[in-house]
Amino acid sequence: MNEIRIGGLRFSLDLSQPLYEQVLEQVRSSIAKGEIALGEKIPSVREMAQALKINPNTVMRAYQELERERLTETRRGQGTFITTDAARVQEIRNKLAEQAVEQFLAKMESLGFGLKDIESMIRAKGGVSP
Amino acid sequence: MTQSAISAEDLCKRYGKKIALADFRVDIPRGTVTAILGPNGAGKSTFMRMITGMVRPDRGTVTVFGRKPSWKTNASIAYLPDRARWFGGHTVRQAVEWGAKLLPGFQTDRAWELIDMLGLGADQEVAGMSKGQEARLMLAVCLARDVPLLVLDEPFSGIDMLSREKIVAALIDSFSERSQTVLISTHEIAETESLFDYAVFFAEGRNALSGDVEELRARRGSVQDIYRQLYG
Amino acid sequence: MNIGTFAHLFKHEFRMDIRRMYARTWFWAYAAVILAVLLVALGVWGGRSGFNPQYLIYFMYAFPFFMIGVGHRALNREWSDQTYGWWLTLPYSRFRLLLAKFAASLVQGMILGVIAFGVLLVLVLYTSLLHGKGLGEVADFVQIELQYMLVTAAAVPFMTALGMAAAIIWRSKAKGLLPLIWIVFGTLGNIFNWINLYTRPEKSESTVLLFQHGIPPEVWAVLAGMWLLAGGLFAVAVYICKKHLIV
User: Fold this and answer.
1) ipTM value of the model?
2) Which one of B97, B143, B155, C162 has the minimum C-beta count within 10 Å?
């Protein structure tokens, strides 16, 4: 599937993987990156389903999980909003960064590189590009 | 199984020498949007016709919400037949009237909403419609009904791309609006696979594979991939 | 049975039939041509001594056969229009669905019959007035029409049901019964002829009246029998539609 933008969020869905997880991860990612601001309204389940052309149930599941993780809050009659809790967003950012590091280290390890090699490689590359 | 919307066991049907269904078994969960997939002649339409009481099995059983299919159970089913046409003498308005007077659960407001969404006009004549427009009208009549089961037999067959997109949008809207068990048979898997919760793959009258679509994705890939694996 | 929905089913069937047949221009073109020919012929030859305008009533011999077509078309339309999927899955019993079609066909038959008899009466009036023969002939013709109306009323339900039964049987596993339908159609269809033959010894040559001295009880029995047969045929059609239809 091509990239779809809706209400500040960006999605790129791969039909050969479960969609619910992808929607969830990509919303989390958008929040962490600040692509969507704190307290901003996100599209309704119906709007999201229409934009992504997927089953509303899938979107609903993802929204419910986001609510459970306190990344979003639903206000009756008004819709769903990103949390205003900056600390929570920071938590997510940290968590995603940790995951990225873990994956990176695991990959380097599988290629046979030790921590010392990794360190010098990072220094040589001049840090992570913005 | 009381949780199933549709349950079939050892279902058999043949037309002369042609076997349509052979010991077909399935349990389709309630409230899901289910894909009925398979090549032509695999038994999909026969299965759908059995659910709506148009065809009787030679052997075996099929139940809809625990009951045997008949004209009585059809009060709870909105069925879009395959290769169907609408009544040539109608305008869109008359079609809505027909639905309101003869189809249980028909909601006129919802019908007009859908007709608007699908780009049709109240005084448009069915006789002058393109195939795509007629397909949209028939879908509107089905979706306008607040019933537990929706059965669409090849709603996309031979329909132009724009009509298909409108139909998909109307379906998503309908799924957002109410919780229904929906069966859709289609060949347009690329465009529709993201709509489905559950899938049943037909092959030569049998259930070759069935299950929750997200689970199948995790195990075997996209519905398109699975289709190729099974029939390729 | 919910009277409300039956009324809607009936209205739907009636509308579909009317549109199918009578909205077509060629139907009316044919009718206009035939009428014009008749008017001319009656105008030219109506005055001749040998010509009895009452012979016009023989047109009504064809009416029952026409009604087979009406009954047949009422059912076959669902297949030729590809709407049988909607029709067969309506949440109403096959009995009710077929009854709506039967009733719509009969009402159509009634209306057409009245029109046909009316047109014939007008033609007789026209001939009489044109050739200065006075209204006595017209009065006689009315009597004749009444007799024919009675027989038509008996024949029409039967022939309509026959047409419907034929259409259903053609689409069912009971296809083999179709020759039987033809036989029934052949023997009983030409009811006017049979009655004519039956009452011939009583009649003088120069009248088209079916019954000279009132209607004999055997004939009443036959007429009633035809109504019963109509009901029986209808029941057969419903049964086959319920159990043996091939879709």
Assistant:
1) 0.94
2) B97
Q: In angstroms, what separates the C-alpha of B215 from chain A's closest C-alpha?
A: 7
What pLDDT, in 10s, does the model give residues B129-171? 999 999 999 999 999 999 999 999 999 988 999 999 999 999 9
Q: Which among C8, C17, C88 is the top mutation candidate for probing chain B, defined by the most B β-carbons within 10 Å of its own β-carbon?
A: C88
CATH superfamily membership of B4-231: P-loop containing nucleotide triphosphate hydrolases (3.40.50.300)
Do B89 and C15 lie within an 8 Å CB cutoff? yes
Phi, psi of B31 (to 5 degrees): 70, 10
Decide if B83 and C82 are in contact by the 8 Å CB cutoff.
Answer: yes
Looking at chain A, the number of H-run helices and the number of E-run strands are 5, 5
Q: Do chains C and B touch (3 or more CB pairs under 8 A)?
A: yes
Query: Does C81 contact B87 at a Cβ distance shorter than 8 Å?
Result: yes
Q: What residue of A is the nearest CA neighbor of B177?
A: A46
Q: Are strands B181-185 and B149-153 parallel, antiparallel or unpaired?
A: parallel
DSSP state letters, C179-240:
HHHHHHHHHHH-HHHHHHHHHGGG--TT---S-BTB--HHHHHHHHHHHHHHHHHHHHHHHH
| Interface check B16 vs C, CB under 8 A | no
Please give the DSSP secondary-structure letter assigned to residue B207. Answer: E
Name the residue facing B197 among A13, A17, A57 (closest C-beta). A57
Tokens 């695991």: give the residue: A106
CATH of the domain at A69: 1.10.10.10
Instruction: Indicate whether A115 and A67 sit together in one domain.
Output: no
pTM for the predicted model, two decimal places: 0.89
Q: Give how far B55 is from chain A: nearest CA, Å.
A: 31
pLDDT of chain A, 130 residues: tens digit per residue: 578 888 888 899 999 999 999 999 999 999 888 888 888 999 999 999 999 999 999 999 999 999 999 899 998 888 999 988 889 889 889 999 999 999 999 999 999 998 888 888 888 887 655 4
